[in-house]
Amino acid sequence: MTTALLDDLTALRARFDDTAGYLAACTVGLPAAGTREAIAADLAGRPDVAQYSRAVEASRAHFAKLVGVGTDRVAIGSQTSVQVSLLATAVPDGAEVLVPEDEFSSLVLPFVHAGRGIRVRTAPLADLADAVTSDTALVAFSLVQSGSGELADLDAIVAAAARVGARTVCDATQAVGWMPVDAGRVDALLCHAYKWLCCPRGVAFLTLREEFARTLVPVHAGWYAGADPWTSCYGGDAELAGCARRFDVSPAWQAFVGAEPALASFATADVTQIYAHATGLAAAFRARLGIDEPALPSAIVTWADATGCDLALLTAAGIVASGRNGRARVAFHVFNDADDVECAAAALGR
Predict the structure, then answer these.
(1) How far is C-alpha 2 from the chain's CA centre?
(2) Considering only CA atoms, which of 324, 319, 326, 321 is closest in space to residue 346?
(3) What order of strands is seen across the sheet that includes strand 322-324?
(4) Which residues contact 246 (CB under 8 A, 6 or more apart)?
């Protein structure tokens, strides 16, 4: 690793405190100093709605930069499942939605319970592209699986969907912040920013291709979806925004106050350096545990732990980890280092 890379990562890491042994960015990210300071300053003073709006719009711009789209293609929200339910309204009656097996439920349940005869079919993630058929209207998948850390084959899935004219909906909650993500490759991309982007919970984003956006009904439209939110506060004749902002929901102000400095930090960082750092630590940890490297590098490492014994060992050693779907799970982010690998491996006797 070059000196320049180390210096750049050190500067970003310095914004985080008390990082030792925290291997749970895939559960919830650590708050950086800027986030804590911004929220504390807001709570200590008088509410400033103009400043809240500036924080929301700056956050939107930072996220747009992170995923390579224009700000007019980004809608804000507070929960991924709510944004998915918006997308479910565009699925034709009786159509098929294809999702990976063991996909995170917030991406699946809105389609399952959409009614109108919509059918949800599953396939193993590795076979998802091959499972696309002429009956498939939409493919919904996480770019990085929450339960296993496995990466989807985006190239294959997008190509398979294009061949049959199916829409693609990608949840990048477990990806944005540690790996390069190009939202322009899918019809819709979702991200709740409280994990790898280290934002307060309640800040979510949805990017939309313009053509796909035209097929959506703004069923959650409120005052903030207006062309000018401050004149959309009363009555039902307000003009909605002409871009993806028409799908905004009213923002959780304090959450965005805390999110803006965190998003700014990641939007100005070199994500390829973060990717190399995080996947390098994950690979070193896999080597210590004798776990084979995945086909596509991941910052999340999971292994079978049906009884929870390994998770208990990590917890007893002061390591913050998690367990999902019968597996122990650790994550390596910009604020982790080789000491975290060593401590976690030693806790497991490896």
Answers:
(1) 29
(2) 319
(3) 300-304, 327-331, 322-324
(4) 75, 218, 221, 225, 240
Dist. CA 14–CA 10, nearest whole Å: 6
The answer for residues whose C-beta is within 8 angstroms of residue 20's C-beta and 6 or more apart is 339, 340, 343
Q: Do 303 and 327 touch, CB atoms closer than 8 A?
A: yes
Q: Are 285 and 332 in contact (CB under 8 A)?
A: yes
Four-way CATH pick for 3-22+270-347: 3.90.1150.10, 3.40.50.300, 1.10.10.10, 1.10.1270.20: 3.90.1150.10
Residue 226 identity = G
Each residue's pLDDT, cut to its tens digit, for the chain (350 residues) gives: 444 444 678 889 899 999 999 999 999 999 999 999 999 999 999 999 999 999 999 999 999 999 999 999 999 999 999 999 999 999 999 999 999 999 999 999 999 999 999 999 999 999 999 999 999 999 999 999 999 999 999 999 999 999 999 999 999 999 999 999 999 999 999 999 999 999 999 999 999 999 999 999 999 999 999 999 988 888 888 899 999 999 999 999 999 999 999 999 999 999 999 999 999 999 999 999 999 999 999 999 999 999 999 999 999 999 999 998 899 999 999 999 999 999 999 999 98
Alpha helices, DSSP H, located in 122-209: 128-131, 154-164
Second CATH level (architecture) for the domain 46-267: 3-Layer(aba) Sandwich (3.40)
Number of residues in the chain: 350
CA torsion through residues 106, 61, 331, 189, sign: positive
Closest of 220, 259, 255 to residue 82, by C-alpha: 220
User: What is the 8-class DSSP label of residue 296?
Assistant: S
Helix (H, G, I), strand (E, B) or coil at 146: coil
